[in-house]
Inverse folding.
């Protein structure tokens, strides 16, 4: 049983919570000689890391987005790669959302135990953070409660940490061989210079990843290049963020820097569009992504009764687990077209962030919906009952939006309407 740990604020009390939790994990591990859940979780963690290969930066960006409350539209995220720090460089991922609470600390130490309720953010599977093991073996987390990094600060136990915690050589060797990664947290005393710098800039939580190899550094560089040069705008459906800063440096020297932005506003004069029987409403907005272009977005909200009926049937028949019955946030589908009325080269499918390149949108638009995807969010089954319903809702959104745009006094309206029903 996990120890009862009341809310605390002092550095000593927060660190004591983390140490007590670590001891509880090790005690429970020692008591499970037959079932051996640690070995099972170790194998699952390894498979998860392999599944997410190449998507670790998107997973970190997803977590940064979800850290901001759902009503926020001014969220900020910053990525810093210092290629000269340590033997292979270090990656920092900072966000200005809510800091880590105790539930968040426990959840990140467990596989598939996300505290997020289905529908309230991009991620809810509780496995994406393990994607960082593709590039690091020693992630660190620094978070704030009231001032810069006065909250939970921790990393995960190394073999030396396990030796100190267990005090037995043979037991330590067994723990190193059996325990899954990222299960046993260890408090961090010092705050690195770059973390302090990010705190001074107003960021609340920073994930620091000391890179484990030259290949890991190469992978991070490639993912940075993907963000900079992608023809699939990563900020398009990240509604809680207004800014993503990306920087490569070598010590004090800045090697490259770019800024992705997002500014959303209602389409002037459009108002709210009736959605028909299956949709509560359809709204038309514009999203200005700066150098990544401007878009018109038609956004439809699925009727709660329709969503509930789909979820109940899918859980009863097996395609979804019972956690989906807790979904109480609106299910929103969005179609994005270029604001100038020109055609997209190809539409992509999103679950807030783009799915794999092989997954095309069924419409000549970028299509976003809270689909049920593969574990790594790279692909989906279009015939899954939830996915089929959401795609139907997207088609209904397109028809309702096209009807509203017919005769609308905007330069791009005729082009948008034609594309939506193409």
């Amino acid at each position: 049983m996990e120890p009862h740990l009341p809310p605390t604020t002092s550095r000593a009390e927060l660190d004591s919570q983390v140490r007590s939790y670590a001891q509880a994990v090790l005690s429970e591990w020692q008591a499970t000689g037959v079932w051996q859940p640690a070995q099972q979780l170790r194998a699952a963690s390894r498979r998860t890391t392999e599944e997410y290969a190449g998507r670790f930066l998107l997973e970190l960006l997803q977590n940064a987005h979800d850290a901001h409350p759902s009503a926020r539209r001014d969220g900020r995220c910053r990525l810093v790669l210092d290629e000269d720090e340590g033997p292979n460089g270090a990656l920092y991922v900072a966000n200005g959302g809510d800091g880590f609470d105790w539930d968040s600390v426990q959840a990140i130490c467990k596989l598939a135990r996300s505290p997020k309720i289905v529908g309230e953010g991009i991620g809810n599977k509780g496995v994406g953070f393990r994607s960082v093991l593709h590039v690091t073996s020693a992630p660190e987390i620094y978070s704030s409660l009231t001032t810069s990094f006065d909250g939970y600060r921790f990393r995960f136990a190394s073999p030396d940490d396990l030796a100190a915690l267990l005090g037995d050589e043979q037991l330590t060797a067994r723990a190193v061989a059996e325990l899954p990664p990222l299960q046993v947290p260890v408090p961090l005393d010092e705050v690195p210079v770059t973390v302090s710098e990010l705190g001074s800039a107003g960021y609340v939580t920073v994930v620091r990843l000391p890179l484990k190899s030259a290949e890991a550094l190469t992978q991070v560089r490639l993912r940075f290049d993907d963000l900079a040069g992608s023809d699939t705008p990563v900020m398009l459906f990240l509604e809680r963020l207004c800014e993503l800063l990306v920087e490569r440096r070598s010590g004090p020297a800045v090697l490259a820097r770019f800024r992705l932005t997002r500014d959303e506003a209602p389409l002037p004069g459009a108002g709210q569009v009736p959605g028909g029987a299956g949709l509560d409403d359809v709204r038309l907005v514009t999203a200005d992504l700066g150098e990544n272009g401007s878009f018109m977005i038609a956004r439809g909200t699925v009727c709660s009764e329709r969503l509930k009926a789909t979820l109940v049937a899918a859980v009863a028949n097996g395609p979804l687990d019972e956690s989906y019955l807790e979904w109480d946030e609106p299910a929103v589908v969005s179609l994005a077209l270029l604001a100038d009325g020109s055609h997209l080269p190809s539409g992509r499918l999103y679950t807030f962030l783009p799915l794999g390149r092989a997954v095309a949108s069924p419409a000549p638009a970028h299509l976003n919906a809270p689909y049920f995807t593969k574990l790594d969010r790279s692909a989906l089954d279009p015939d899954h009952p939830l996915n089929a319903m959401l795609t139907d809702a997207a088609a209904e959104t397109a028809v309702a939006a096209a009807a509203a745009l017919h005769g609308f006094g905007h330069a791009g309206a005729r082009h948008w309407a034609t594309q939506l029903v193409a």
About this structure: Residues 1-6 have pLDDT under 50 and may be disordered. The two ends are 57 Å apart (CA to CA). The chain has eleven helices and 16 strands.
